[in-house]
Structures
1.
Amino acid sequence: MTVIAAPPQAPQTASPLVRETPRLTSGRLPKWAPWGLLGASALISAIVFGIHSLASGETFSVAGWAVVGAALYLALILLISSLVEGSRKGLDRLVTGLVTLAFAIAMVPLVSVAVTVVVNGMAGISAEFFTNSMRNVVGEGGGALHAIVGTLLITVAAAVISIPIGVFTAIYLVEYGEGKRLSRAITFLVDVMTGIPSIVAGLFAYALFALFFGPGIRMGIMGSVALAVLMVPVVVRSTEEMLRLVPNELREASYALGVPKWRTIAKVVLPTSVAGITTGVMLSISRVIGETAPLLLTAGVATSMNYNLFDGRMMTLPVFAYSQYMNQGIPASAYIDRAWAAALVLIVIVMLLNLIARLVAKIFSPKLGR
Amino acid sequence: MTTTTAPAPARIGGTRRQRPGDRWFSGTALAAGVMIVVTLAAVAIFLIVQSIPGLVADSRTASILSGSFWDYVWPLAFGTVWASMLALVLAVPLAVAVALFISHYAPRRLSQALGYVVDLLAAVPSVVYGLWGILVLAPAVQPVYAWLNTYVGWFPLFGGTVSSTGRTIFTAAIVLAVMIVPIITAICREIFLQTPVLHEEAALALGATRWEMIRMAVFPFGRSGIISASMLGLGRALGETMAVAMVLSVSGKVTFELFTSENPGTIPANIALTFPEAYGVNVNVLIATGLILFVVTFAVNAVARWIVSRRSEFSGAN
């Protein structure tokens, strides 16, 4: 693709006393060259670090091996390619290496987080973890049932608040507000709202409820309000995008049959885009279900079961993980195990929501002919 | 013919407005839209109302203040900006490179799957990043800090007494960078993919290598997108709470040194750590710091969105 194709033609048109016509592939490294260099630099680096670890008695440093190997490869490919193919191609190969390396670096934390959470989390997972609360538990034992119930209740309440608002706002933006000032203002504010720090949403919910119920108030529903503030903009954006994908021909066909606008929206536009909207809603739920800061300020910390959103403190999974880590008792390992187990449960829920959302988008999206 | 067709559209247009179902439906939609504007206004108003007692408080009225409110906020504001800037410096080059890898280097069939994988980074809850940062990352990077401090300690940023736990502002910045990379990557990827294919092919046809094509066609097209993506990442980093609250060991000292255990705190982390036990005017002081955070992130996000929207008007046609 990036072959410099000019040189082979040049000699033909130039003077006849040129040396033999170069082949198309001459002046280029063979296809296997980068891979060979990569393997060679990995090997050299391994040998260096192997000798070092044997000599000093330390364990083999995987991080050091990767860093030196990558640096060696970049230096070699730049040097060799510059000599064989010219400096421009050499730079190109260097950048290719750098960009691939960047992707590998970005994967390191993901893999590390996944492995740590699974390995450490399995230690704390037991039947007791899913069937007990932390009521009257000091030290070992106890579970996160109260936190799981709290997370479910608060998230469902947040979804009940934000899905109608979000979906109807998107309908307004797409179907009614075309080109109006208000709709442009809403679009802008929704965009800005996606960037509200989660802790500010928590402070807002606290300030709102403290005004009516007095200072120091903690309730599950406050957490739902805070989460809804974070969730609404995500729902609006994704729903809006999906509604805009509905072809105008469908709407016009419906109008032509004399169907009123609201029935067109309810019976034609929404069913067409329902898969995409579901995906957006699930992604927004997966975003807020892991929020810790606003829930810490609003729903608070509790050790007992609480099924009532409108009365008293309520535990949630992220806050459970946080408080288990921050307020360690004796033995500390019991608390850290519970924190990791809660993190594992949380991450599994989030990943499942993400996965199901993608599957819904893939399977149920309307086939639009083309 | 003409007499029968002319009135028809007028009649449809006339009756459509008057149906009760229509009026109800459009009214609900409008109300939902207005609700968002009202909510945002309410966020601002409630925060302002609740923070006024905090803004004028001093050490006599609020127990967490040792001097005036602004003496309390200054190290926190500094820490917030400093940690976010460090995170941005780490994240932007990485995110742009990852976006390039996905949009222009990876095999076509893989690129969408790779995009999902990067998005997964954004899906990990912040409390999990906090646990990971404190129990895995901090011990792992501490030897590097010690080495840099010993051998390159003359460089001001690396000086001071090195932390023995690794819970420094640089570790917090690394965690923040990991959290904002997927956001910046997602936007950059979208924008790189929008580069007109004709520009790219023209560059290649002139004999440019792939990197020269990217420098000549992709980057000039996506520059404002990269800037606004970075600003959105900055907004997220400024407001990120739990990871910083768990990782950073705070002393309230204003310093640029990266590897010491005496670090300035950040506004959101400070709220999360102090709020559960706060009472009286202390609550208002904390809400006032939250208001400052809200104003700053609002401004950063608004500018970023403005850049994006200004650009989108031009990108469609040409």
2.
Amino acid sequence: MRRPLSPVYSPTVQRLEGLAKLTGRERYVDDLPLEGFLWGATVRSPAPRGRITAIHFDPAIDWSQFTIVDSRDVPGPNTIALIESDQPVLASGYVRHVHEAIVLLAHPDRTALRRAAAAVQIDVAPEPAVTDFRVAPRPDQIQYGDDNVLKHLQISKGDVERALAAAPIVVEGVYETGAQEHVYLEPQGMIAALEGDVLVVRGSMQCPYYILKALRHALGRDEGRVRVIQTPTGGGFGGKEEYPSTIALHAALLTLKSGKPVKIVYDRGEDMAATTKRHPSLVRHRTGVTPDGRLLAQDIEVVMDGGAYVTLSPVVLSRGIIHAAGPYACDHVRIDGRAMFTNAVPFGAFRGFGAPQTHFANERHMDRVAARLGLDPAELRRRNLLRDEESTATGQVIRDGTDRRAVLEHALTLADYDNKRAAHARDNVSSAVTRRGIGIATFHHGAGFTGSGEVMLASRLDVAGLADGSIEIRSANIEMGQGTLTVFTALAAQRLGLDPAHVRIAEADTARVPNSGPTVASRTAMVVGRLVERACDDLRRRLDMDEATGDALRRALRDWHEKHPGAELVGQAKYEPPPGVVWDDVRYRGDAYGTFGWGAYVAEVEVDLRTYETRVIDFVAVQEVGTVLHEVLARGQVQGGVAQAIGWALLEDCRWKDGAMVNAQLTNYLIPTSDDLPRIRVAFLETPYAYGAQGAKGLGELPMDGPAPAIVNAVAAATGADPCVIPLTPERLMMISDFGMRIAASKGQDSTP
Amino acid sequence: MTGNSAIHNPQSTISITFTLNGSPISVEIDAADRLLDTLRYRLGLTGTKEGCGEGECGACTVYLDGLPVNSCLVPAYQVRGRRVETVESLPPARLDPLLTHGATQCGACTPGVAMTSCWIIDHPDLLATHSVRELLAGNLCRCTGYDGILDGISAAMQSRP
């Protein structure tokens, strides 16, 4: 099934900007040379909800040296344009979460600025806040609609009530996942400056056109007077999807008021406390099943914590519920999803976008179903994985020619699953202090925007033929470590038979590149990469040389420019949906995605019975993602995603007070180090997808979906405990173990953490 | 640019001399400046990154008298008369095994990872008492899962004469 890689994609084509990064020459936003500028800082709400009654500026400071901005300085509507316009650029009289931005300051000296920011005191008359999304709000806590529900979505297939009533066995479960901080290693940052009449904003971002839209909206500037340029971005993972619009607006407001360039770079503490995180979730399952393990009905309720503004919660919820029933065939499915308003810092985009939460619940639940039936968890999945011509929860008929059972079997073989299960059963009895277990998860991830999303994005991309015989790809899709520059270059080089040295990629500058959409949703290589190929074809068509490659093409480009001095030769491509993809956005029925990636992950863990620490000692990640475009980059995506998900499963515990993170530092919010991880063993199965670049499907998010349930299933197998909440820290595991239960009983407490 | 501060503390500026990437250098600093800020903002050596500012992530790793340290935790005045080497001192050819094996993705942790990796490669005797995973644990990376870095270090160590 593994195809040999074509020469262009062999690992000898190195990451293009890799050496610049290794030698420290790559310049991120805080590395750019900048003269005569001011540093910007943000003064934030101390309270989760209430009316701002006073803002005190300490008279010991000479405020005439500072540029000071508040909501009255926002020239247009005081809202950050996204799905709903409910989030203010700067709070005006009222706050809805701790750390909400209220006042901006700028000053040439960063130390003086920090002292000044600490010397602004905000008084808030507190009102009743909502801090637990799982509990129904009291009337005095209602702040959105008449029930605090930011979004309610439902999926219905067949007749769940009747099927559950008739099912011989029904298994129930409740699962919870915590928030997760992105911890991109480069904190958020933006520089705003006026160049003539044009406001230019540069910074770390995934979506230049989102920021352009937000600037135009709140500043009331037309497109010709605003320009957004991405700087090399040190990690995003979704954290630089929507949030950078806020910092861009803040820097822009300070620049417009002071007339000077302004740089805002968050330190780690501010970044962790004030920016978005993965949505916490609670998922309830009720599953009807036959004694031999056929799924008869899945009744699923999904609740997510949206935080204090709508931001992207409706679409995170959407992707979450669409994946909630897993990659299984079941005739009767009902999924009810709600995203709840709380007075917390808004939760936002994070790799996987709602699907890791619902996959955790579903895959953990599958193991509980298997335990009830006395079946091997692998066998339960074998019996239910989708076959071609069967349909998902939304009624999407799968006919992609991939073999989902082969993905599972390959993973089981690589992990030596059967032998290890037997060995653990034998050895755990005799080990005094450790227990080992092995767990699996099978899952899927829809590639690209959900439903009609890609059609509505209407992405465009240009490939210019230049006078020196090289080409330039003009795209708004950015490099944040995942390999966009390398993959786009390789795709164009291969398409046109060019040496990669003759392919350039334009800076993602909204004044120069068309809107090829945001760099999110595992869409860049698959969807936008396909636009690169088609724009290359269009470039040749404009030369009347449909087949030209290599030197012939380079000669033709030079000749064209000699005949048309100063003119531009641009091949263009616009998104076209794959044929036959039909989605009903009202009834939530039909083809939710053009295609899915499929995964089967196996985790082996060792639990220390003295400390309740869980160590992942082996990890196998097998996935079917269409054609692998670059083996080193693709493997890196999987290993990095698995590592991030291991952190979410076991370590990364956001602690809250009044809807704000109190452990907002890397000293006590722990992400995995090299010493916390095993080697992550990666294998790909490749069935090319006809409508992705070179047959590629989306890859970046899939690896976030499988590890948490595989690990927690392994912990359950090792210990006999039944953990349903992550992160499964040692403290949580202890409290649900026999030992913890005894402590809880002696204190008369509920043992649930 | 940052920290210099005629405004908040005019008396605190001092001059220090130290050896930076093999050459002597004198620089005016604020007494409270971190070595990280001196390198980045006074001397323009922006290869050294700030990831956390509290010694957890290792993105700001430099060598002080030949030993890797977090430059965010070193007061600049303490390097007076000492030897500091930054990522800018690493010969690019040494980094090739890291590049080939996928040791860098977003690049924000990478200069620190490159410094620690080269230090491990230069001190193979450490492996008698420590694993590479343990030695690398002071450098957080959120992109790679570390396998690409470990493979790069391993390849570099095998190709050493």
